[in-house]
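Hey L., structure's done. Input below.
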Amino acid sequence: MFNFKRRAAAAAGALALAAATVAAGAWSFGPDHGSGHGREVDLQLLAINDFHGNIEASSGLTWPGHTAPVGGAEYLATHLELAREGEDHSTTVAAGDLIGASPFLSAVFDDEPTIESLNAMGVEVSAVGNHEFDAGIDELNRIIEGDDDFEGADFPYLGANVVDEATGEPVLDPYWIKDFGRGVKVGFIGMTLEGTGDIVSKSGIEGLVFEDEVATAEQYSRELKRKGVNAIVVLLHEGGVPVAEDTGHDCESAAGTATGMSGPIVDIAETMTPLVDVIVSGHTHQEYVCSVDDPAGNPRLVTSASNYGRVFTEIDATYDRRTKDIVRSTVVGSNTVVTRDVDADPDQTAILEEYGPLAAEAGNRLVGYIAEDIKRGQTRAEEFPLGSLIADAQLWNTASADTGGAEIAFMNPGGVRDDLLYAEGTPGEATYADVFDVQPFSNYVVTLDLTGAQILEALRQQLPSAARSTTLFLQVSEGFTYTWDKTKTGTDQIVADSLALNGEPIVADRTYRVTVNSFLADGGDSFTAFADGENRLFGELDVDAFEDYITEFGTQANPLEAPDLGRVTVVS
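Output:
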């Protein structure tokens, strides 16, 4: 059944929260149970995912139906604190990608401000996501443990399916047990998606294996049961997409658009052991509260809280002390939009005031000038101006004989994280912070040898395959052209004899010098053809190459314009 749940406000601030709460994400398996004083105890889980270091209350964080911006750590922390009021058994959890691909304010300090923010916010446990590995396992361990100048995370980062290839043992804690007292214990198993190794730079995860999510959940659920912990929640950095169609998986969303769901999380939830009571998911940056039957045919809650701290999930359930388990029929889930009509949390404000001026000093440096907005695409399956501009910048940066002798450059669409906008008040000025927000991963530009046949294979790997279910449109540098004929099937869509460089056909057995970032050079996003490239020359950081290009060609007298589309001819 569906129901709508409003929290009675205990103070003026809570009244404001209740007025702003979007409970359209409420999903219930049955009536509320438990007073918290007898055999049954009320539990509350608050969850976030895909925060990506968005600690600042940016005007760019919006939500459907809301005229004012949403999100920001100052307001997320207040919403969470108000949600905890009156709850004796509450914990705050996360499903990965809390750091990585972060805005400049956090990224310039290696995401230390975000960890401090999450510590102060009361996060008690998180799964790792793929972006926790952006800088490699050693840097992740530093984030967890801290160093001489940084205290690290106050909460455990779980990675049950992140395994040392040599020993077969997990390199991070596989699970965490929350002891609420009075005999109430809940186990949390944390995992990233099995495909993490295909979407992060290989150099930082050498020797690691990312194992199957369902098998891993089975293994550690049974281990928790042997320890007398029957109430089990999986924090999984893999997700789905809410859809308007009735898929047999009942869903609600705070945006009011979902009926069913699709995506990888559906198959995982349908096959994951019934020992797991709730699945908190992420990765797809979607927002949903859904019911997916487990293998025993019992409804099980699957949730996701959008991204960037714009939404949080509240899950309420009854814990039975006799069975030491969650009563599945009592589980209720709802998503709440993080509005800014509540008081800003003072601890979060203090963190922002500490780091803000330092970031501004570094980020306000003028790089060059742009003549107009230069934007990403609506999806990652299309050509877009900013991707073309980055490819041009990387080609220019590596074209000379001593920097690589590049003839062609390719850019992965997922590596373009923000638009380059013509700002009001400072017309056309592009700062270092603007440039960094576009490319925050600190990849290197790499020039390598590929034959014409290997280039064709790379282009064919844009299409969905057994390794990746989505289309990813490589952004190409000026002078390189080809035809993508969507009236054909399979890899024939990439028309082999259409590939050309400056009007001359690409020759299958000729070797070309090609520049990509180090993520693609390692075969990231399942573009394994690039991993076969030889005679590699590493250049500077991709963000520095982009900065140099804007400085060179984006002068005040002649600011940069958005490149025209059409390097790839798409037939549909």
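The chain has two domains: 40-350, 366-570. Confidence is low (pLDDT under 50) at residues 1-25, 31-36.

-- N.
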